[in-house]
Design goal:
By secondary structure, the protein is mainly alpha-helical. The protein contains 26 helices and four strands. InterPro entries: GCP (IPR007259), GCP_C (IPR040457), GCP_C_sf (IPR042241), GCP_N (IPR041470). It is found in: Cytoplasm, Cytoskeleton, Microtubule organizing center.
C-alpha cells in the first residue's frame, strides 16, 4: 500500500455502501477484527526489532501467542466454511465474538503505546529545537521501552480492573513483559550489575565517574551521580521501593570495588537479614493484582532482603573493618587541635619557616617537622595508628577570601534562623568592639590634653614611646590579622602561617564518608582555629616584649606616658581575653558538643546513608555555629 510503519499500525476498513443492509450491520460488527489483527501484527513486527529492548520483545512474544490462538480459531472457522453448507455469518459471529473483546483490548494497548511514542517524540523535538540540536531519528523514546511499557500496562490494568476478562488479559501480559525487567532488577540488587544494553532499566550508570576521582571530587559525584534513577523507565509498582533498589546496588558496587566477594542470593539467610517475622508488607502500597502478576509479590521480599543484606555488609565494612569512628577521632585530633600539645611544639619548631612568604616555604621541611613531632613519644599523637596520613599543605588564598567565595557560590549571604545563637554572640562582640574604639578615642583625647597642660619636659620621648605602643599592638596585630587572613582581598602575599593547612589521606571506601568536600570543611575549621591560636600567641608575645623592654618596666615619671602605658596594657589584655573567650566558644560550645552528638549517632546508626547524613550535618553545623557561613558574621569576626 506504500504506507509507513507508523501508518500500517493504524489500519481502518470500511464497508461498501451498496451492500445489503441485512449483511452490512453484521459485517460492521465483524470487520473491526481485521483492523485489530492488522495493527497488532504490524506492531509486533516493528517492536520485535532488537533496538526496542527486552521488555518490548517479551510483550510482543506474549501478544504473538495470543494472535496464534486467534489464527487457530480463524483456521478452524475457515475449515467449517469450506466443509459445512450450514455455516453462516451468524455462526461466524457467534464463534468470534469472545475473541473480539481480547483483540480490542490488545489493539487499545497498541494505540496507547503508539500515542506515548508520538507524545515523547513531540516533546523531544521541542527540547531539541530549543537547544539547537538535530533530532536523532533512530533513537527510541524511553516511554515505549522497558519500564515505560510496564507503566502503560499497569495503568490500563488499573483503569480496566472492573472488567475481569480484561484484567486477566493485562495481568497475563504484565507477567510476561515484566520478566526481563525483573531479571535486570535481580542482577542489580543481588550483584550490583546493570545488564541493560537498551537503556530500559530504572538505574543508569555514568561510567566516566570513577572512585579515583574522589581525591579531587568536591561534589561527591561518585556517590550521587555514578548511579541515578531514570524516572521515565520506573514502573509505578516499583516507586515505593526505588530508593532501596538504588541503594542496594550502590552498596554492592562499593563492596565489589573493595575486592570483597558478594554473597549469592541463595547464601543470604532470610531470617538472619529480616528477622523471624519476615518482611513486613503492611506499608507496601502496591495493587494486589500487580503483586499477583509479579510472581505473587516475591520481588518485594527480594528487594527488602537484598537492601538489608547490602546495607549491613557495607556498614560493617565502614565501621568495623575500616574503623570509621577511629578515623574521625584521628581527624578531630589534628584538624580541631584536640589535645594539641604536638601542634604547639610544631609551631615552635617551624616558626622561622612559617614567617616566610607561602611560595617560599618548604613543604618538605614542614612535613619533616610535623612527622618528628608526631613520632615524639611524649606526644599524645604518638599512639595514633593513622598519624602517617596527616600531611602539610599551603593554601593559595586567605581564609576569609575562600569562605566568601564559597558563600557567594552557595547563595548563603543572608542569615538564617540557624544562626540565631551566633548572631547574638556576634552582635555582642560588635558592641564590645565599638566600645573599645570609643574608649580609646576618648582616652587619647584626654591624654593629649593632659600632656599639653602638664608641661612635660620630654614630649619627644613620650610621643615616641606612645607611637611604639600603637605601632606594636594596633598596627602590628591589625595588619597581621586583616592583611594576612583576608589574603587575596588586599592583594598581599600570604605568609606561611597564614597559608598553613593540613590534609588527610583517605582511602576507598572511607572516602565516601570523608570525601574531598568533607575534608575541605575540616580544613576551613582548622584554619579558623589556627588563626585564633596564632593571634593569641601574638598577644602573649607582645606581653613578653613589654616585660623585657626597659621603657615598659621602669616608671618614666611622666604622667602622659604612664597613661599611654596603662591604656596599652588594658587594650592588649582586653584583646587577649576576647580571643581566648572566642576560642572557648568555638571549641567548647560548638565543636565538642557537636562531636559528642556525632559519636552518639554513629553508635546507633542503621544505614550507610545515615552515616553520610550525620557526618555532613555535623560539619555544616560546626561551620554555621563558628560563624563561617555568613558574610556579615565573617566581617564581625575578623578585622578588616
Amino acid at each position: 500500500m506504500g504506507k509507513s510503519e507508523e501508518q500500517t499500525e493504524r489500519f481502518n476498513y470500511h464497508v461498501d455502501e451498496s451492500l445489503d443492509p441485512s449483511f452490512k450491520d453484521l459485517t460492521e460488527r465483524i470487520l473491526p477484527l481485521a483492523t485489530y489483527f492488522t495493527s497488532i501484527d504490524a506492531f509486533i513486527e516493528k517492536h520485535s526489532k532488537f533496538e526496542y529492548g527486552f521488555v518490548s520483545h517479551a510483550l510482543c512474544a506474549a501478544m504473538r501467542g495470543l494472535l496464534k490462538e486467534y489464527l487457530i480459531l480463524i483456521t478452524q472457522l475457515e475449515h467449517q466454511f469450506r466443509t459445512s453448507p450450514s455455516f453462516t455469518l451468524q455462526k461466524f459471529w457467534f464463534y468470534v465474538h469472545p475473541t473480539l473483546h481480547t483483540m480490542s483490548n490488545l489493539h487499545s494497548l497498541v494505540m496507547d503505546i503508539l500515542d506515548a511514542a508520538q507524545d515523547a517524540s513531540e516533546d523531544e523535538d521541542d527540547i531539541l529545537i530549543v537547544e539547537g540540536f538535530n533530532n536523532k531519528k533512530d533513537e527510541i523514546p524511553q516511554q515505549i521501552k522497558g519500564g515505560g511499557i510496564l507503566t502503560i500496562l499497569v495503568d490500563r490494568m488499573t483503569t480496566m480492573s472492573g472488567d475481569l476478562a480484561t484484567k486477566k488479559l493485562y495481568v497475563h501480559l504484565l507477567s510476561k513483559a515484566s520478566q526481563p525487567y525483573v531479571s535486570m532488577l535481580h542482577s542489580w540488587i543481588h550483584h550490583g550489575e546493570i545488564r541493560d544494553p537498551y537503556e530500559e532499566f530504572m538505574i543508569q550508570e555514568r561510567k566516566n565517574v570513577k572512585k579515583e576521582n574522589l581525591k579531587e571530587d568536591f561534589n561527591d559525584a561518585y556517590w550521587e551521580a555514578r548511579y541515578t534513577i531514570r524516572d521515565k523507565t520506573l514502573p509505578p509498582f516499583l516507586i515505593p521501593f526505588k530508593n532501596k533498589i538504588l541503594l542496594a546496588g550502590k552498596y554492592l558496587n562499593v563492596i565489589r570495588e573493595c575486592g570483597i566477594a558478594i554473597q549469592e542470593p541463595q547464601q543470604q539467610s532470610t531470617e538472619e537479614v529480616v528477622g523471624k517475622d519476615g518482611v513486613d508488607r503492611t506499608d507496601v502500597n502496591v495493587n494486589s493484582d500487580i503483586l499477583v502478576a509479579m510472581d505473587g509479590g516475591r520481588f518485594v521480599d527480594n528487594i527488602e532482603i537484598a537492601y538489608k543484606c547490602a546495607n549491613r555488609t557495607l556498614l560493617d565494612l565502614l565501621l568495623k573493618d575500616q574503623q570509621l569512628i577511629a578515623r574521625l577521632r584521628s581527624i578531630k585530633r589534628y584538624f580541631f587541635l584536640d589535645q594539641s600539645d604536638f601542634f604547639t611544639h610544631f609551631l615552635d619548631l617551624a616558626s622561622a619557616e612559617l614567617k616566610k612568604p607561602s611560595k617560599d616555604v618548604s613543604l618538605t621541611k614542614l612535613q619533616s617537622l610535623l612527622d618528628l613531632v608526631l613520632r615524639n613519644p611524649s606526644s599524645v599523637a604518638y599512639t595514633d595508628p593513622f598519624k602517617e596520613d596527616v600531611k602539610v599543605e599551603m593554601s593559595t588564598v586567605g581564609l576569609v577570601d575562600q569562605l566568601l567565595r564559597i558563600i557567594n557560590v552557595a547563595g548563603m549571604m543572608e542569615p538564617t534562623p540557624a544562626f540565631s545563637r551566633a548572631n547574638r554572640l556576634a552582635e555582642s562582640f560588635a558592641f564590645r568592639k565599638e566600645n573599645v574604639k570609643m574608649g580609646d578615642v576618648e582616652s587619647e583625647n584626654e591624654g593629649s590634653e593632659d600632656g599639653v597642660g602638664s608641661g612635660t619636659e620630654k614630649p619627644g620621648y613620650a610621643s615616641s614611646v606612645a607611637g611604639s605602643v600603637t605601632g606594636s599592638i594596633v598596627s602590628s596585630l591589625a595588619g597581621s590579622i586583616s592583611g594576612s587572613i583576608m589574603g587575596g582581598s588586599n592583594k598581599q602575599p600570604l605568609t606561611g602561617i597564614e597559608a598553613l593547612t593540613l590534609d588527610y589521606i583517605v582511602t576507598f571506601p572511607l572516602s565516601l564518608v570523608i570525601s574531598r568536600k568533607a575534608l575541605t570543611k575540616y580544613q576551613l575549621l582548622f584554619r579558623h582555629l589556627l588563626y585564633l591560636k596564632y593571634i593569641e600567641q601574638l598577644l602573649c608575645n607582645t606581653w613578653t616584649e613589654h616585660t623585657k623592654s626597659f621603657h615598659w618596666r621602669r616608671g618614666s615619671g611622666h604622667p602622659a606616658l604612664e597613661a599611654w602605658k596603662s591604656r596599652a596594657f588594658a587594650l592588649r589584655q582586653r584583646m587577649l581575653v576576647f580571643v581566648q573567650q572566642f576560642s572557648y566558644y568555638v571549641t567548647s560550645e560548638v565543636l565538642e558538643p557537636q562531636w559528642r552528638n556525632l559519636e552518639a549517632n554513629l553508635v546507633k546508626v542503621s544505614t550507610v546513608d545515615q552515616v553520610l547524613q550525620y557526618h555532613s550535618d555535623f560539619l555544616d553545623t560546626c561551620l554555621k555555629e563558628c560563624m563561617l557561613t555568613n558574610a556579615k558574621l565573617l566581617r564581625v569576626s575578623y578585622v578588616q
